Amino acid sequence: MRARLALLASRQQVELREVVLRDKPDEFLAVSPSGTVPCLMAGDTVLDESLDIMIWALSQNDPQGWLDMSKAGHALIARADGPFKHALDRTKYAARYPEEDAAEHRAYASAFLADLDAQLGDWLYERPTLADYAILPFVRQFAFIDKTWFDAQPWPSLQRWLETFLASPEFNAIMDKYPQWRAGDPAIRFPTGSRATVRRPTWLRCAV
Length: 208
Known about the structure:
208 residues, alpha+beta, Glutaredoxin, Glutathione S-transferase Yfyf (Class Pi), Chain A, domain 2, 2 domains, 9 helices
């Protein structure tokens, strides 16, 4: 989701090859150093972290100025990608971590979300930046672990921020489902539209 958001914003069109994680094609494993998704290949450059793909795409073209933010924005992303994501995974996939306390991890994640709520206006800063679009997909994951519980928390600014994102054209544009890619399939371009800059060969592989 994060990679698609940045590709859409930067108008960098890629060939999208949808990967089913239980059936990874050999062509994907030959390219991805980690065997994880997303993975983007642009010429000799291979990126297999979604944040790295976001920064790469926006470095090519950043018409909305997402990269124009303070060091505080980068620090907030680091908290989201590090401790918050760690706690999110152990809350959402508690059965995978039976030796850990899911309630403790949810409390840790909730403390981070409370910090975001205290900081938020319409956006984390004066206008939308990379920080918003790098963190919102993780907030969405956390919210839908138990949406009723999430909506009952005293986080009005955070909840409004998430709902604005879920109703946005950007969110709707990245949520199309694609068939599993197999060798020889016709190319699928993402994002679609004549305003996108086609970059060949550039592949993006995302999980179903």
